Amino acid sequence: MTNDKIQVIGIDVGGTAIKLGRFTADGTCLQSLTVAAPQPTTPEAVLAVLVDAIAQIDPDNQTVAIGVGTPGPSDAAGRIAKIAINLPGWLDVPLADWLEAKTDKPTAIANDANCALLGEAWLGAGRHLQNLILLTLGTGVGGAIILDGKLFIGHQGAAGELGLISLNPDGPICNSGNRGSLEQHASATAIRRRTLKEPIELGILAQQGDPAALTFWQEYGRDLGIGLTSLIYVLTPQAIVIGGGISGSFEFFLPAAKAEIEKRVQPLSRVGLQILPAELGNFAGIVGAAKLAWQCYSGL
Hints:
Shape: globular
Radius of gyration: 19 Å
Order of helices and strands: EEEHEEEHEHEEEHHHHEHEH
Number of helices: 9
Distance between the termini: 19 Å
Strand content: 15-25%
């Protein structure tokens, strides 16, 4: 089988929907499929849905590997879903083994933020860059890191929880046990707590020139910039990719974030730094999972 004929499957497992895509080696998505997540989303129920959906998207058994993104950390080998946030019963689930047994295809798993960054690095905002980080600004604040072209997950697979770094030692309590984490300042949950408004509502008001909304986004950008300062000093990325629902208001908070970074980060640590909006949106997860599958298949 020639390279352009070989195909893989990328899967993004969420609490309400499971997305799948069938991809060629150049990143072309030949077919995509979204199915409802089973309720409750127990590991066994999700496995059954995955097996059925894989058969739907690959009826002729043309694919050679599977990559899966799950909403929580995996082990360093990409075999076990250690825990999946908001999914019941997900604790040390050997999902890769289960899928391999059912499909006879090599399978790798990673957390959804890592998959999103792999997708952006392959086909999105991070194309042609070797060192970049991703922040997903949504219900929480997720993160991922690519160093020298490779996903950095740490020795246990749990690295890259960028939203959990400390911003304010006396701030609101975080689910992680930290106080005043970046997530507690930059997530949609934090925005609601602070303004009693939804982020999308504040974005619409800012577009209409509402002074209070514009001021809020400036303050938001300042907090985000302070959090990014710590990450830049440690990782000196070529680019920071900003995704998640809140990134829809990128234009309103970016100037304040950049001003804060320029004020706080010495020039040598931010040479050529770009802060970019994510390009792939909700598609990033399956694209990155497909990249994971390619790496699994080729042994990269």
